[in-house]
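**User:**
Make up any protein.

**Assistant:**
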Amino acid sequence: MKQLSRVEGWRWLVAASLTLLLLSLACEEPYRIGEYVLVEWEKGRPAYPAYIVGQNGPASYRVHYDGYGSRWDEDVTLDRIKGRVKGHVLRPPPPKKVQQAQGRQPAKKKSDAGGKGSTSASPVSQYQVGDRIKVRWRGTVYSATVLGVVGQDKYLIHYDGHESVWDETVGVNRIVSPN
């Protein structure tokens, strides 16, 4: 058996290392759990920011939409993931299915000829968007900011200092006090 010269040995080692590196990169999953990505939630609408919270196979991921409750988490295929989020992203308005589930129908023409008795007025609530509050979560109190008013006694909140994956809708029974 022919013995390799020192130079040939180094060349072989470098070539083998590069081959292994390229193979490992080719086998790497395109997205990882915890990554912040843009997902097509509704066909023809802007992509929504979401976190990958699980993987169901080589081309299917479980995502949590930023700012929405876990009831909207869903499995999506790679073709619906439009890329990674870079920097701050403004969330588009919720899809029609979310608006309907929250009791807020998309804007339509008034069916009431006189415009009286319209039920589109927002309910009066104790807290408003931007209010800083303290919220009880599993026995501990955390500072939070109101992101949205879901109903008279329910609020979409963001826990200060935590990722938006922890944003949730809470009732007034969990709000301890204004911050």
